[in-house]
Amino acid sequence: MRNRTVSPRVLVVIYRLQASSDEELMDQLRQGHQDALSVLFDRHYRLVFSVALKILHDHGEAEDVMQEVFLEVYRKIENFNPAKGSAKTWILQYAYHRSLNRQKYLNLRNFYDRFRGSDMNEWELPHNSNGWNGLTYHEWARVIEKGLETLSQKERKTLEMAYFQGLLLREIAEHLEEPLPNIRNHYYRGLKKLRDFLNERSCLKKEPA
User: Fewest CB within a 10 Å sphere: which of 6, 53, 175, 204?
Assistant: First the structure.
């Protein structure tokens, strides 16, 4: 990545924006200061992504919705009224609405059929008083490790960075210096293989003593 020289004046503007409240940033954005949107994004993108992922159960779709939400914030900034609620709440409302609309769209196109029979909560393993599906945490960890061993190196690396390090797919693409479409392919192929592996072993139970 090239080193860019940033003028002291720009640094002062960025510092002031970072020190501003969300509502002040919204006001700056309304006045046309687009850098304010970048600061809002940095503050709230993981929360927006988390909301989208909880509803959509798909990393790539959630990331797309996250980006759409902040574009919507930019386009509809005039609709924000601080008297009716905080900027954070306003942004999250867009996150919920966008996610639910996307979920309906995906359902109409049978997007989730490929996951039928698998746990739609992805990595939220079924837990009860006897552990995860009758297995202890450490036993489940060993099963998942075995599943990861069945993946290609790039598929495994992508899933580990997405789920264990909490990175977005675009962040993984930047880190690995690969095009985003390639990373999406590694993610979807790896996730399907791992789900299939875990589904085959879903009958594993601890035998009662």
Answer: 6
Mark residue 46 as left, alpha or beta (left: phi above 0; alpha: psi -120 to 50; beta: remaining): alpha
Question: Shortest CA distance to 180 belongs to which of 196, 164, 193, 167?
Answer: 167
| Sequential DSSP letters for 160-196 | IIIIIS---HHHHHHHHT--HHHHHHHHHHHHHHHHH
Q: What is the pLDDT of residues 131-140, one digit of tens each?
A: 445 556 566 6
- Tokens coding 204: 């594993």
* pLDDT at site 98: 92
- Percent helix, strand and coil across the chain, each to the nearest 5: 70, 0, 30
CATH topology of domain 134-200: Arc Repressor Mutant, subunit A (1.10.10)
**8-112 is classed CATH 1.10.1740.10:** yes
For the chain, residues classed under CATH 1.10.1740.10 are 8-112
- CA–CA distance, 11 with 8 (Å, rounded to integer): 5
**Amino acid occupying residue 200:** E
Provide the whole-model pTM.
0.60
> CA-based angle 80:88:79, to the nearest 5?
10
Tally of helices (H runs) and strands (E runs) in the chain: 9, 2
Dihedral sign computed on CA atoms, order 73, 174, 194, 105: positive
